[in-house]
């Protein structure tokens, strides 16, 4: 059996007209003798009636501190509505589709509500449907615990559902359909001349996703990478080939190796706060980080200097972080409204001058660098949020990404 997983994001299932485009993509896969397993997200984006953000808003308007368990029950409804509508649309067009919730599709998770991890997948229900010539339409973003509790997989988690099903079913390919024609050198909402990458490595796209590129969930990339299943990100709205994510570099067939590019993309994470802690004792640094861990606050962009520790946290956790540290007697300063901007490139390691180009691009644009951090395949800076777009554009230009 040749299985293909086709995942359609919120904008791809938002209206009757676009759902007809989805039908075409499914029909095309069938014409190629593939058996599609369809995964759908909730319909539309923030503001649309059945979108995840709308459902969260609805329940939070009753109680700002809605419990994680109840929030999951509500969030699951978005994908259920979408899958039911998509299934009905396919049936109306003569395709024998069957809707499945995450649980009905055999997706078992832990009980970490809002951020559940998939523990196992029983592929029998889907395989049974496929053997009978049916097309399963699975609700993305959700699973069920062994005790029958509904869970969700973290925002953007329908991509994770698609990859996890692809892995469990030994799919030939996982297609992620969205509103852009592939993974781009930057978010096109910020950089008008961003280019579509025809090929990218799992490692690079994972970094881009972790550093904020919302186009695909990093967990989805990790799962596909572990199983070595090709992932393609493409648009529902056109027939462009999209971006192929794989381990095979173009260099193997003579072109430029994708993993040799110094810079592949620029990305950003907004809504970050910088915390500066004054320290007087040498043992303070591990105590500060232990305190943050004990409070379940994850820290990033860490710099430890004699007398001062700097790190960043998600802005919504900044006050909790500062209060916790002050209660222990530390002097704390918080800088709100920051953003992390990163350049990712599989080939930047050991190339001299990359950091110099990075800093030059920002300095020439009068952008103040608040902090930096680098790894083998990325360089990141903290800047003021008001300078985020300028920074992304300047770096995109400096690393000639429009000409990639
Ligand atoms: P879906 O609902 O289909 O999952 P998302 O909104 O989660 O769609 O992801 C698609 C969006 O990701 C695009 O509209 C685009 O604005 C944004 N995006 C951010 N970074 C990138 C990038 N590097 N390449 C392409 N799109 C990006
Ligand atoms: N509907 C969910 C969200 O908005 C999952 C997804 O779209 O992938 O986060
Ligand atoms: Mg998404």
TrEMBL record:
Annotated CASTOR ACT domain residues: 336-397
Domain (Aspartate/glutamate/uridylate kinase): residue spans on this chain: 3-235
Catalytic activity: L-aspartate + ATP = 4-phospho-L-aspartate + ADP
Pfam families reported in the protein's UniProt record: AA_kinase (PF00696), ACT_7 (PF13840)
Positions of substrate binding: 52, 79
NCBIfam families referenced in this protein's UniProt entry, alphabetically: asp_kin_monofn (TIGR00656), asp_kinases (TIGR00657), PRK08210.1 (NF006068)
Protein function: Catalyzes the phosphorylation of the beta-carboxyl group of aspartic acid with ATP to yield 4-phospho-L-aspartate, which is involved in the branched biosynthetic pathway leading to the biosynthesis of amino acids threonine, isoleucine and methionine.
Binding site for ATP: 7-10, 178-179, 189, 214-215
GO biological-process terms attached to the record: diaminopimelate biosynthetic process; homoserine biosynthetic process; lysine biosynthetic process via diaminopimelate; threonine biosynthetic process
Keywords (A to Z) from UniProt: Amino-acid biosynthesis, ATP-binding, Diaminopimelate biosynthesis, Kinase, Lysine biosynthesis, Nucleotide-binding, Transferase
Membership in a protein family: Belongs to the aspartokinase family.
MF terms (GO), sorted A to Z: aspartate kinase activity; ATP binding
EC number: 2.7.2.4
Protein name: Aspartokinase
One GO cellular component, as annotated: cytosol
UniProt xrefs under InterPro entries: AceGlu_kinase-like_sf, ACT-like_dom_sf, Asp/Glu/Uridylate_kinase, Asp_kin_monofn, Asp_kinase, Aspartate_kinase_CS, CASTOR_ACT_dom
Species the sequence originates in: Dendrosporobacter quercicolus
Top-rank lineage group of the source organism: Bacteria
Involved pathway(s): Amino-acid biosynthesis; L-threonine biosynthesis; L-threonine from L-aspartate: step 1/5; Amino-acid biosynthesis; L-methionine biosynthesis via de novo pathway; L-homoserine from L-aspartate: step 1/3; Amino-acid biosynthesis; L-lysine biosynthesis via DAP pathway; (S)-tetrahydrodipicolinate from L-aspartate: step 1/4
